[in-house]
Amino acid sequence: MKPLFYILFLFSLSLMYSCRQNATTNDEGIGYTEYINSKQLEKVVISKYPSGQEKAVVFIDKADAEKQVVKEMHFFENGNLQVEGTLKNAKRHGIWTFYHDNGNIWSTGRFENGKSVGVFHIYDKEGQIKYKYHYRNDSIVKEEYFVKGKLYKTVDS
Questions:
Q1: What pTM value is reported for the model?
Q2: Domain containing 91 — which CATH number?
Q3: Cβ atoms of 23 and 31 closer than 8 Å
Q4: Which domain holds residue 108?
């Protein structure tokens, strides 16, 4: 239960920064990430560490009259990426990726319109899978626990 609390805490923390990336498609059938990447984006530095290293940056769609944030990135003080993703209508949408301070992936998960969907993977600092949480309609429906990268226990919710 502690890992779930930790995940929810970090996701809530990052929600303050409205981070998200989308794996769905727009009206033209283009993947949302590719759709975002095809736009002209303006980078805005939101905060920096005392050293001058960027802490949080957002990307704004220059063509959007409302100047909505469509992508966000946060960094550790050592310069490594901490979290990244894209935004759609100010909600998480698509794959979010969180990183350990050593640069290895800590967690990946998908959102649709701000709700958790699909499988969230959680890794240790060495890159070994620790947990998988299966979401449906923003609720966990199955939990999988791993020891040294091998499935140890499955819990259906």
A1: 0.74
A2: 3.90.930
A3: yes
A4: 2-156
Number of domains present in the structure of the chain: 1
**32 is written with which tokens?**
């949302």
Torsion of CA 138, 119, 15, 20, to 10 degrees: -120
Q: What is the pLDDT of residues 110-146, one digit of tens each?
A: 888 899 999 999 999 999 999 999 999 899 999 999 9
Q: Tokens for 117? A: 């969907």
CA-nearest of 7, 5, 1 to 83 is: 7
Q: How far apart are CA 102 and CA 125, in angstroms?
A: 7
DSSP one-letter code for 114: T
Which residue, 18, 94, 26, 111, is CA-closest to 60? 18
Q: Of 127, 124, 120, give the one whose Cα is nearest residue 142.
A: 120
Q: C-alpha angle with apex 85: 106 to 58, nearest 5 degrees? A: 120
* Token couple for 22: 């989308």
Phi and psi based region of residue 10 (left: phi greater than 0; alpha: psi -120 to 50; beta: remaining) = alpha
Which amino acid, one-letter code, is at 47? S
